[in-house]
Amino acid sequence: MSALGRQVFDWHRLSPLTWALLTRPTRQLGEQKRTTAFLLRKLMTVSSGGGLEESSFVDPPKCARKAEHRTGLTQCLLEKQRTPVSQENVVSSLLDMGFSDVHVNELLSIQPGTHPQQMLDIISELVLLGLNPEPVYVALKKSPQLLKLPVMQMKKRSSYLRKLGLGEGKLKRALYCCPDLFTMRQRDVDVIVRVLKEKCLFTVKQVTEILHRCPHVLREDPGELEYKFQYAYFRMGIKHVDIVKTDFLQYSMTKTKQRHVFLERLGRYQTPDKKGQTQVPNPLLKDILRVSEAEFLARTAVSSAEEFEVFKKLLAREEEESEGCMADEEEEEEEGREEEQEL
Amino acid sequence: MTYSVQFGDLWPSIRVSLLSEQKYGALVNNFASGDHVSAELEQLKARDFVNEAIFHREPEPENSQTAAPSPASWACSPNLRCFTFTRGDVSRFPPARRGSLGLMDYYLMDAASLLPVLALGLQPGDTVLDLCAAPGGKTLALLQTGCCRNLAANDLSTSRTSRLQRVLHNYVPQDVRDKNRVRVTSWDGRKWGELEGDTYDRVLVDVPCTTDRHSLHEEENNIFQRSRKKERQMLPMLQVQLLAAGLLATKPGGHVVYSTCSLSHLQNEYVVQGAIELLDNQYSIKVQVEDLTHFRKLFMNTFYFFPSCQVGELVIPNLMANFGPMYFCKMCRMT
User: What is the pTM of this model?
Assistant: First the structure.
């Protein structure tokens, strides 16, 4: 049967199903709750009867979109005819998981060459991590390459993410902000986690919190992430707890520096001394970073937009020049200027 | 510093400006060849703020003299051309270059430094004294006016005087230096009353001060640090003595401009008032402060001025126009 399948469907690059695959369990042990829900839903779906209709496969507009798409759907149809149970199985499983008809169709067409079982496995992993159908759909739409991921890797990454505390529905945001959360190299994820734990000395709980609330950190350069932390801790005098609470790590270094240095030079922000005290109370971090620029200027800085614009330009230049120049060169330059200028 | 008390709501914007890169003006060297310098500077989108102030001022509505420039305008020292970038433009001038006559084409300085020289109102044939001349920008400006019959440039510090000499050498041709009888000395400015009393038509007293802009930056040897407290407290006294000497060296009917680059009342208004009192009490010489309101209005498009000076004018730094601080007060020696 396999040989026949390969002969006929070779040009579609689809590997034929075997009956063995059909019987492979799609859920891990211990997910009894899920299974129950599954079964319940299956019952409900059956009674409504909607998802099992053939018409959803030959929906003309979707078919018409791409030749590839058509190929996929045709393939599905043929496949369905050949091994009707496996395709239906996938579809019904998806519907049972709570995906809408529309989503199911779209999912099937994302990577037409994907083995349906493969797709189901990947999707199942995501669902098991606590993601709802809508976010799963969005994630796969955004990063179709996820479907190509070897299921083993998927499982490995899932368990790692669970260990980091990103299961139980905390994954949604992370996946949305960082679509390559599953496809990125393990060592790249490791590096970030290590920076947070070993260099920045966040607790495990804090690391989880950070990854949950500021998933962008996973995409940052480790060195820059560390620098961002150091800026908060040493330069601004913000403690670990507050760094986490205020989502400090999600803001760009540029924006943070612009607003902080502006406040500092205005005399409205002071780095706390060794005892953690300042002469005047510093503004709340949320009033510095979270608010819009207009509000920041009006309430926190109490300064004008035009002054801030000029300041940003000057600061950018200062940064550029401090990076470019060696210390000696800078000194020379200053002396030279003094020669010429009236003070 | 207690400037927050003195300046209130204005202080934060002054502070941020003091801590950020200052803005420069390019004083055109009239002795170097060619008008191409002005054209080049205009190409860079800079404009001559002096020219704009004096000739493009809209006439006051109440004043019907629209044809001739108002009296105050020709009280400005003539022939000074200084380019600046417009408000909010943070471009920098390229370094000055040597022209065909071997002299530098412009001198980069804090544009606000030109105001005391403009306010002094030199006229052709004046004998001029620059009592604390180094490093030489204002001295150079005095020479640019072409009005100096004699120019005496003095600074107590010999190292600073040699800088002044270098500036003159790089900007002013030998024959002009001779013609103007430029004399550079390193004497104690406080002695000028005795040395050359009643001698000069115009005197500039640009005193040593706390140079606030630099003090805020430098940690080391900062005049505001505790170890230099005495020095700081003695400063106003030194400044009064210098201004008094400058006034004594002025001819009766002559004019003096006192200037500093400090924001402090104690170094500015108090010194002016102190010197005037001193001259009255010890020498029975009457000195009158001249109102510079009209002068200030000429330059309001380029500089930010502090609105509440008791006497004199104070340019305050602002990010939009990061010049100054520059305090200046004009006086006339009446007797």
Answer: 0.78
